């Protein structure tokens, strides 16, 4: 592939005004007629028009309705070049291509999923439908005519409003859709097939009626109710919180079962992976409900942040993704519990983005170059991109942030914008210089704040020294200084919070310190006794803090912090420290013991009935094996980490038996299942406590009846997971697996949970199990959800089972990636990123991992997607 560079951006020579598409749909010979009205921009000279194309069969070209002479154009595998076009006036092109949706295994462009025609065009899928200027800064008005056999496709959908529909000869029919909003090609969508619909209505704040429609497979209508409810709540919330109203008379969502990612925000016609639409208590977990709510909201919010204002080029991807993730995070925080949501966000950020940022795949939130854009839909662009927007809100304050965002909506509505455009709105609205802040977009790597503090009892001063640095990342050795908003708090020995304004006398707004220089010293005056510092409250900046803090100080914070997120953070830091020490002890052949400080802190939290159950559950959920590995950083031995974590858990379980028993007996909500956040928190706490109990008293036999009597999927799959992971291969575990399979054998989304639970069994035999499951009817290499559930979970979610010292699981993954790459490069590349931290493994595993990656690299016919990931990982 060719490297694309931000600095090479140039506007197109031609602008497209309208696009009139006609699709004549058949599975292996779909004819697409694409009529575009366009003209050369002034001063464009006589340059040829080069349209993008990929995997198309060229049929015909007309220029201004006359068949083009073959000397005027040339067709290549990657496009269509047309020469001698008019200088200034409008002209039309009519391009006819043929495509085969049934053979489209990449699931990009127009393809078939379970007999349904559907499209995925972001980022560069539209060029697999027709020749086009397939880039986000070419905005045009689309009209789409779809023709198909009535029997096979009674439903014909595209973006915008339905203009006309009617019968054609020989059992065919047609529909014409018109989208009045100019849009880039990546937001185009078409769906055709036989689906059921769930309808509802919404009236916007200004009184406009909107028809809401969710399309699902026949028989699954009832399972779309929660998605519909989430959609209505999202629409209302975006009006109330951000003043954003919907702008078409219909909003449609279609659920399909073969989809490369979660969902897609096509204008007025979102297409979803059915995993993020369908839910009922029997088949969906609390996590599924929360994900559905968040993703429905995310795609809906894109209507303003992404569609009305889109990206000038794909380097600006975070302009729509970071901002939209921020918006969906805020929605969930407002809808559910803000601190619980924040903890989950940070856990996710640290689990996915931090490793990305410290490994071979590190890149800035706004990258400067790429080989394959599909590989840049990353945790950095999305999650760190959202954190950057959050920091902007922290630095400017809620009101100023809102005025900047309002200006952005007003100034750039209808534009294809850049990060600079975005930041300028906040500068103009507030008079703040954001040039140093903008480094967050341009520089990769997780900053480190190294902090020291000194208390002078006689002078009653507290001195805090802060130094910032950013570790080098690929291609970026020297780093710039950043503007880091660091929230902090001080607690006195009795646990009382010291008010900053009583002690600071320095320029600190609220509780935020603005770190802009390399070294920063803050002296707090009038401090009565040595205080305990709480740093990076609410996780105000996505940084690593290096600060020597005693265990008793952390325990103090775990007890008295008023910022609930930070209270959890203190507990988590305490546990992390303990787990790192325990890993060292394991490697040194010593016995592992958990400190009383940690046990007391954990147990007093789990029993604290004043705290939300969801928080109590988060509190007792120890950092995972991957979290511990990340904090250790180098020479990782996953078996040692697993053993250490198990030993610490055993200790906690022994001491906490009574507390956990009391939770298990009392916490579950009574009555009918409800997916609300509070009940979900109670179930989460129940499962965490039950998990500990299996280490103290509860035998595997006791779990089977709990599994059998569960009346919802959260408890059922939760107990199944505990049983199978804690007692792998036991009769009880295998019985439960068999019963689960029998009951849900015809529901692939539920079977995905069954596959994932087995793929993550911490046992050397799991590789063989995964291989065996691949041979059953429940697995299909063709379906991305199945691939992610089985192979993806094994590679990304099973540290001991996947990182076998003999390297056989790496070899297995390499073989799967090579095979899958021929069908679906995007999914293959994504699954392969599970190995992004291979360089931090201990030497034996590291060598095996390198060898497996080298096997992939040696293939001559790799896709650009897998080639790019492999090269960067080995580079
Ligand atoms: N914008 C899409 C992601 C498209 C991924 C293309 N490889 C979904 C989302 O972020 O909302
Ligand atoms: Zn998005």
UniProtKB/TrEMBL annotation:
Molecular function, one GO term: alanyl aminopeptidase activity
Keyword Protease: yes
The Aminopeptidase N-like N-terminal domain, residue ranges: 90-187
All residue ranges annotated as the Peptidase M1 alanyl aminopeptidase C-terminal domain in the record: 552-874
Every Peptidase M1 alanyl aminopeptidase Ig-like fold domain range: 445-547
UniProt enzyme class: hydrolase
Keyword tags: Aminopeptidase, Hydrolase, Metal-binding, Metalloprotease, Protease, Zinc
EC number: 3.4.11.2
Cofactor: Zn(2+)
Catalytic activity: Release of an N-terminal amino acid, Xaa-|-Yaa- from a peptide, amide or arylamide. Xaa is preferably Ala, but may be most amino acids including Pro (slow action). When a terminal hydrophobic residue is followed by a prolyl residue, the two may be released as an intact Xaa-Pro dipeptide
Occurrences of domain Peptidase M1 membrane alanine aminopeptidase (ranges): 226-437
Family indicated by similarity: Belongs to the peptidase M1 family.
Protein name according to UniProt: Aminopeptidase N
Organism: Hoeflea poritis
């Amino acid at each position: 592939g060719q490297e694309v560079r931000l600095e090479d951006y140039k506007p197109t020579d031609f602008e497209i005004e309208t696009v009139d598409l006609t699709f004549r749909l058949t599975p292996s010979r779909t004819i697409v007629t694409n009529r575009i009205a366009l003209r050369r921009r002034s001063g464009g000279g006589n340059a040829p028009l080069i349209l993008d194309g990929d995997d198309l069969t060229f049929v015909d070209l007309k220029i201004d309705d006359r068949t083009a002479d073959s000397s005027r154009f040339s067709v290549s595998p990657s496009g269509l070049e047309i020469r001698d076009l008019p200088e200034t006036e409008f002209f039309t092109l009519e391009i006819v291509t043929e495509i085969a949706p049934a053979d489209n295994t990449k699931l990009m462009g127009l393809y078939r999923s379970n007999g349904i025609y559907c499209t995925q065009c972001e980022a560069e899928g539209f060029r697999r439908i027709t020749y086009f200027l397939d880039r986000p800064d070419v905005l045009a008005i689309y009209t789409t005519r779809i023709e198909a056999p009535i029997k096979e496709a009674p439903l014909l959908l595209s973006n915008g409003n339905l203009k006309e529909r009617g019968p054609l000869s020989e059992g065919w029919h047609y529909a014409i859709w018109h989208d009045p909003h100019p849009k880039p090609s990546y937001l185009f969508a078409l769906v055709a097939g036989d689906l059921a619909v769930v309808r509802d209505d919404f009236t916007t704040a200004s009184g406009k009626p909107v028809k809401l429609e969710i399309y699902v497979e026949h028989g699954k209508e009832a399972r779309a109710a929660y998605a519909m409810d989430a959609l209505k709540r999202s629409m209302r919330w975006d009006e109330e919180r951000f003043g954003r109203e919907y702008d078409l008379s219909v909003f449609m969502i279609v659920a399909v079962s073969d989809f490369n990612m979660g969902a897609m925000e096509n204008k007025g016609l979102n297409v979803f992976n059915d995993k993020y639409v369908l839910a009922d208590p029997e088949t969906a977990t609390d996590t599924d409900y929360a994900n559905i709510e968040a993703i429905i909201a995310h795609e809906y919010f894109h209507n303003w942040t992404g569609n009305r204002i889109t990206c000038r080029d794909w380097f600006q991807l975070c302009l729509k993704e970071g901002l939209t993730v921020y918006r969906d995070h805020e929605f969930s925080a407002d809808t559910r519990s803000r601190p619980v949501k924040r903890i989950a966000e940070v856990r996710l950020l640290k689990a996915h983005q931090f490793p990305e940022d410290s490994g071979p795949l590190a890149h800035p939130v706004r990258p400067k170059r790429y080989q394959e854009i599909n590989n840049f839909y990353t945790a950095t662009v999305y999650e760190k991109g959202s954190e950057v927007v959050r920091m902007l809100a922290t630095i400017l304050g809620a009101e100023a942030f809102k005025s900047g965002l309002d200006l952005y909506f007003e100034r750039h509505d209808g534009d294809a914008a850049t990060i600079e455009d975005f930041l300028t709105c906040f500068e103009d609205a507030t008079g703040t210089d954001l040039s140093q802040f903008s480094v967050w977009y341009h520089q990769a790597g997780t900053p480190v704040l190294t902090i020291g503090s000194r208390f002078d009892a006689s002078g009653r001063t507290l001195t805090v020294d802060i130094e910032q640095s950013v570790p080098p990342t690929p291609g970026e050795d020297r780093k710039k200084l950043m503007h880091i908003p660091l929230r902090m708090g001080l607690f006195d020995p009795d646990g009382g919070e010291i008010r900053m304004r009583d002690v600071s006398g320095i320029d600190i707004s609220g509780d935020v310190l603005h770190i802009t220089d390399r070294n920063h010293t803050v002296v707090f005056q009038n401090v009565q006794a040595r205080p305990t510092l709480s740093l990076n409250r609410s996780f105000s900046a996505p940084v690593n803090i290096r600060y020597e803090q005693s265990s008793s100080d952390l325990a103090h914070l775990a007890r008295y912090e008023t910022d609930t997120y930070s209270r959890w953070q203190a507990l988590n830091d305490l546990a992390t420290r303990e787990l790192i020490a325990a890993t060292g002890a394991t490697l040194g052949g010593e016995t592992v013991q958990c400190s009383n400080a940690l046990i007391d802190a954990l147990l007093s939290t789990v029993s604290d009935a004043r705290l939300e159950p969801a928080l109590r559950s988060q509190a007792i959920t120890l950092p995972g094996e991957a979290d511990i590995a990340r904090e250790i950083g180098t020479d990782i031995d996953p078996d040692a980490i697993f053993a250490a974590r198990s030993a610490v858990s055993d200790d906690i379980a022994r001491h906490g038996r009574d507390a956990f028993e009391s939770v298990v007996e009392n916490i579950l909500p009574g009555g009918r299942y409800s997916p609300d956040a509070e009940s979900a928190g109670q179930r989460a706490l129940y499962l965490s406590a039950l998990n500990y109990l299996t280490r103290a008293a509860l035998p595997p036999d006791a779990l089977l009846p709990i599994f059998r009597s569960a009346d919802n999927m959260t408890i059922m799959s939760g107990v199944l997971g505990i049983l199978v992971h804690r007692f792998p291969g036991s009769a009880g575990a295998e019985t439960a697996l068999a019963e689960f399979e029998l009951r849900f054998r015809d529901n692939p989304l539920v079977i995905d949970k069954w596959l994932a639970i087995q793929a993550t069994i911490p046992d050397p035999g799991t590789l063989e199990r995964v291989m065996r499951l691949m041979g059953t009817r429940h697995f299909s290499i063709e379906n991305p959800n199945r691939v992610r559930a089985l192979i993806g979970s094994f590679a990304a979610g099973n540290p001991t089972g996947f990182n076998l010292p003999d390297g056989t699981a790496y070899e297995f993954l390499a073989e799967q990636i090579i095979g899958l790459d021929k069908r679906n490069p995007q999914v293959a590349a994504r699954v392969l990123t599970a190995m992004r931290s291979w360089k931090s493994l201990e030497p034996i595993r590291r060598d095996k991992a390198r060898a497996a990656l080298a096997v992939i690299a040696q293939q001559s016919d790799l896709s650009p997607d897998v080639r790019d990931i492999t090269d960067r990982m080995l580079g």
